[in-house]
Amino acid sequence: METIDCLKCKQQDVCCDFGAWVDLEVAKKILSLGLKGDFYHLEVDKNFPSGYKVGTSYEDNRCSFLTPKGLCAIHKVDYNLKPVHCREFPYENGKLAQFADVLCSVVKSKIKKKKNKF
């Protein structure tokens, strides 16, 4: 599998444009940290350990836990509470995520280079 080096990205917060899903119990722990940010859209989802998930963004807005400098407030305080989706991006279950070609500028540039070769 090809690896993506996120440190080469010039827009490291663009992957946060749509937020992430978080297990409800993890969200409670994050909220107890007192960080600026909120959760939205409580949904039943049996793929999450608690059986529920919540989103870190409202509608199509950016993640509510982004700092004004474009950094993850959760990551700065406790990396282990950072949503799994965010820790793994641009991968998901060991493969490039479905939206990696849209949200990841490094992936976009690799795709563009491949197209230009032909």
Task: Please sum up the structure shown.
With 118 residues, the protein is α+β, with helices and mostly antiparallel strands. It is built from five helices and five strands, in the order E-H-E-E-H-H-E-E-H-H. It starts with 20 loop residues before the first strand and ends with a helix.
Q: What is the element string, with H for helices and E for strands?
A: EHEEHHEEHH
Sheet with most strands: strand arrangement: 1-3-2
Gyration radius (Cα, Å) is: 15 Å
Mean pLDDT across all residues, rounded?
A: 83
List the total number of helices. Answer: 5
> What profile does the largest beta sheet have?
3 strands, antiparallel
Distance between the termini: 22 Å
Structural class: alpha+beta
Silhouette: globular
Which parts are unreliable, with pLDDT below 50 for 5 consecutive residues or more? none
Total number of strands: 5
Give the tally of structural domains. 1
Into which percent range does the helicity of residues fall?
A: 25-40%
**Into which percentage range does the β-strand content fall?**
5-15%
Description:
The chain is α+β, with helices and mostly antiparallel strands and 118 residues long. The protein has one domain. The protein contains five helices and five strands, in the order βαββααββαα. It has a three-stranded antiparallel beta sheet. Strands 4-5 form a two-stranded antiparallel sheet. It starts with 20 loop residues before the first strand and ends with a helix.
